[in-house]
Amino acid sequence: MDMEGLLRKLTEEDGVSGYEKKVAGIAAGAFSPYVDDTRTDNLGNLIFLKKGQGNSPPRLLICAHMDEIGLIVTKVEENGFLRFTSLGGFDARTLPGQAVNIYGRDKVPGIIGFKLPPLYTEQEKGQGVKMEDLFLDTALTPEVVRETIAVGSVAAIERKYLTLQHNSRAGKAFDDRAGIVALWQCARELHKIRHEADLYLVATVQEEVGTRGAVVSTFGISPDLGIAVDVCHGDFPGALEQETSPLTKGPVVTSGPNIHPFIAEKLLHVAAEYHLPYQRDVSPGPTGTDARAIQITMEGVPTGLLSIPLRYMHTSVELVDLEDIKVAGLLLARFVAAVDRAFVEGLVCL
Amino acid sequence: MKELIQKLCASFGPAGREGQIRAVIAAEIEKLKEEYFVDTLGNLVVRKGPAGGKKILVAAHMDEIGLMVTYIEENGYLRFTNLGGIMQQTLPGTRVFFENGTVGVIGQEKNKETREPGLSKYYLDIGAENRETALAKVKIGDAAVYLAPLHQEGKRLTAKSLDNRVGCAVLLETLSRLSAATLPGEVFFVFTVQEEVGLRGAQTIAYRTKPHYGLAVDVTRVGDTPEPEFKTNVSLGKGPTVKVMDSAVICHPKVTNLMMDVAEKNNIPYQPEVLERGGTDAGAIHLSRDGIPTGALSIPCRYIHTPAEMVDLDDVENGIALLQELLKCEQW
Amino acid sequence: MLIKELSAIPGVSGDETRIRNFIREKLAARGLKNYTDALGNLYVSKEGRGKGEDPGLMLCAHMDEVGLMVSSIEKSGHLRFYKVGGVYEPALISKPVKIGPDDVYGVIGAKAIHLQKAEERKKALGPENLYIDIGAKNKDDAEKAVKIGDYVSFYSEASCYKNLVRGKALDNRAGCAALLEILQRDFPCSFTAVFTVQEEVGIRGARVAAYRVNPRMALVLETTIAADTPGIKEYEQSTVLGDGPAFTVKDDSVIAHPRLLERLIQVAEKQQRPYQFRRYGGSFTDAGAVTTSRGGVAAGVISTPCRYIHSPLSMLNQKDWHHLVEIVDGFIRSIDEKGLEV
Questions:
Q1: ipTM, 2 decimals?
Q2: Nearest CA in chain A to C203
Q3: Count of CA atoms in the C-beta half-sphere (13 A) of C8
Q4: Which domains can be identified in chain A, with CATH numbers?
Q5: Which residue from B245, B250, B293 is facing A42, i.e. has the nearest CB?
Q6: What is the interface size between A and B, counted as CB pairs within 8 Å?
Q7: What predicted TM-score, i.e. pTM, was given to this entire model?
Q8: Closest partner residue to B120 among C236, C295, C298, by Cβ?
Q9: Max CA-CA distance within chain C?
Q10: Which of A289, A303, B205, C142 satisfies CB 3.0 to 4.6 Å to A230 for a cystine?
Q11: Cβ separation A242–C71 shorter than 8 A
C-alpha cells in the first residue's frame, strides 16, 4: 500500500473515541512489515515496537491518536428518533444534514436531522444550531429502531476521501489519522536507516475525550522520551497569524512549557540537516494533544510535539497537504536515528 | 435494606471528612466478620475471595457533598466554601449539621442577586450571638452536610446523600450475601473518599491495589421528570443502569457486555446509561497505571446533589442482585 | 535579602532555567547536593542529623512565575503575546517587561486616552488591544532582538521598607526563600525538598516530583492571595497581610489532610505565633498533584499572604514570612519527635 492508499483507508473507516478497533486493524496490517512486535493494551492502544541496534537502547515513544470525534445515543424517543451527545468536541453548527453510520446490532445509515429554517421562530433566526435540537434519523419504524439501536450505541460521520487540487486532500478524521500515516512513513523509512533506540510507535485511543489513551500507554511503556504527532490549524482567510500554520510549508515543531527545549531543538536541527521544510509555533501552556499527558507521566517524560497543518479541524471536510504528512514521517525517522543514549541522558540535566 | 440505607444516609461524611461514615461502615463490616484496612487518604478496603486469579476493584464512594467553614464573623455568622458540587438554588433555608451535632441554617444576603454565581452571598447561622460563642461550637475547617433524614414513600426513598450511600449499601449487602467460596477471584470492595471533589480516593486505591478490572457503583441522573435537563431514557424503578459513558470514562466494552449478559441471563432488569455531565470513580480507576478495563453500575436517582435525593428500592435490590451475579461470574 | 533577590530573577513557567540556576548556586554555597529531572524540578535530599527513621516527608515550593510569551510580531515591529498562567490583565497596561534570554526591554502600551472615544474608555483593554513595544522600526528589526516563543517576564524592581516587600513573582519566590532558609538549618530527620516547575500552568512539575520522591506526607510552601483591601468584606479577603501565615483547609485541588493541618496548628500555638486560615476555597496548588500521587499522600499547604499576586507587582509582610519559616521548622521537628499518623 502507498501512503495515500493508507490515508484513504484509515479516514474512510469509522473509529470514534472508545471504539477504535476497526481503525486499529487497518493500522496493524499496514505497519506489520516494518515493525518487530505489535500488541494492544487494556484500553485498546495499538503499540508497535521497532527494535534498535544499540547495546542499551533508549526507549522512544512516538504516538498519534487514531480515534475521531463522534456521537453517542442518549435516548430513544417514542417515535424512533434518537437523541445524542458528542464524544469529543463537535461544533453543533457543522452537523445538520450529515450522513452518519449508527452502530447498533447492525450498522445503520442515518442523517443528522434538524428543524428546517422556514419553521424557525423569530427568536431562533440568527442563532446557531444547538446540539440538543438535533437528532439522528434512520427513517425506520420505532419497533425496528428499538430492536437494533440502544442508548449507548455510537455513530460516526460518513465521508468519502476527496482528491482536491495538487496535493490537497479532504475528508474526515484526518485529525489525527494523518498523524498515524506519518508514523507509518517513519517506520517505513527506518527500515532503511540504522537507529540505536527502541522505538515504540503508538496509535492511541480516546485522545478526543481527554488524552486518555496516552495517559495509560505512556505509563505502560515508560519511555525515556516521547513525541506526540497531531494536527494543528492551517491557514484560512481571516486567520490570525499566531494561531495558524500554512499548508505545504512542512510540519510544525512546537515549543513552550509542555515541550522539552532540547527535543524541539533537535527536531529543528535534524530538519535543517536533511533539508526538510518545517515551521515553528509556540504554546504558552499544556497543549491540547497527547503531549499534555506524556510529559507528566510517572517521574516525567521529556516530550516533543510535531504537528501537520490542517484546515477545518473537527469537521467532516478536514483538509491537508500530502507532502506535509510525508515530510513529517521523514523528519521523525531522521530524528529517531539521531537519538542515542547520551542524548536522552542529557535531557534530565537542566 | 431501608434501615441500612437510613443509617448510612444519616451519617456525616463530606469529602475529606469521612471519619464518621467510615466508622459506621466499618461497624457493618465487623458484623460480617470481614477484615478491612484504611489507606492514607481514608479509603476503606475489604478484601474477599481467593487470591491468584483476576482481581476486581469495586468502588462506591462514601463521601457526600458539603460545606466547609472558612471564616467566622464578629457577629457569629459563618462563611463557607463548597466541598463538591453544591447547587446554589437549594441553599437558602436549608439546615445543615456538623460532625459534633451543631445545627445551622443557611441564609442569603438580600442585597445580592440570586443569580450571581459564587457562595459569597450565603452564610451559615448556628444561633451564636458572636464570634466567641460560635467558636465554642465550630472552628474554621469544620464541615457541615445537609440535615435531611430519610423518608419512605411507597418504594421510593428520599434523603440527603443517597449519592452515594445507596451505592455503599449495595456493596455492604452484596458483601453479606456473597460467600468467599463462590468468588472466582479476589474482590476489593472499596468505600472511597473524596469522589465529590475529583475522584481522588479512587485514583490512589486503584494505583495501590493494581486490579485487573474496575467497577464503580454510584448513582446516575434520570430523564423521567418534567422537562429534564438531559434527554435520557433512564428512569426510576426500571432497574440499575449499566454505564456506557460519562464525562470521565468510556466504559470498557468487555465489562459492559459482561454486565448486560449477566443481567439478561439472570432476568435482572437493567438500563443502558449515557450520562452527559458528571463522572464517577470509574473515571479515575480506568486511567490508573497502564489502564484498567472498567465499568460502572448505577442506581437511578432524582434530584442529585440536593437535600432530597430520591431512589427506588427495587432498583437497589436489582442492583445488589446484578452485582452479586457479576462478581460470581467466571467470565472476567 | 533573599526574597528580594529571588524576586528579581525571571522564571516564567517552562523557562525556569535562570531561577533554578540561582537557587542551585545558593544550595551549592551551603554544600547541598541537588539534581534535576526532565521537566526541570530541582531536588535536594536533606540528610538528618539524628538516627531516627526517615518520616517520608517532602517539602516543596514552586519556583515558576506567571508571565507572557511572544506569539507573533506585527509588521510594525510590535509584539503580540499569550499569557503564561493566570496573569491578571488589567494590571498589564503601562508596565515594562523583559523579553527572552537576553532580557530585551519592552513596554506594554495602550492607546492614549486622548485618542479614545467616550465608549472606548469604558471598555476593558483585553489582550487583543495590548502589545509589547520594544522600540523596533519594523518586523525585521524586531526579529533581530526577539523571536516568537520568547518568554516575557515582568520587569519590576523589588524594594523593601520596614516589613514590607514589594516586587514581582513574590508568588512563589517567598516560598522558595523559605525553603532555602529551612535547608540552611539542621534537623534531626531527613526530608526531601523540591523546587518545582510549571505550577502556574497546571501543577505539572509537582505531579512528577511526587511520583519520583514517593513521600508519605508533604507540606507545600506557597504564597496566597490577600485581598484585605478597600471595599472587600472580611470573609472575602481570603487572607490579611500581617496576620501570620495562612493554612489551607481546602482549595480546588486538595483538602488538607486533617492530622497534618492539626499538627500545623499545634506547632503555631506552641510557638505562640499568629496564623490564619485561607478563606477562599478555590484555585489550585502543588498539593493537589501531590495528594493523589501513587497510593495517596497526606498533604497540606502553608502560605505567605500576598496582595496583587499574578500581576507585575505584589506585596507581602516579612513578619508573615518569618513566622512561616519558624512554623515549618517546628513542623519538621515535631514530625521527628512525634511522627504523624497518616
A1: 0.90
A2: A296
A3: 9
A4: 3-68+172-346 (3.40.630.10), 70-157 (2.40.30.40)
A5: B293
A6: 72
A7: 0.93
A8: C236
A9: 73
A10: A289
A11: yes
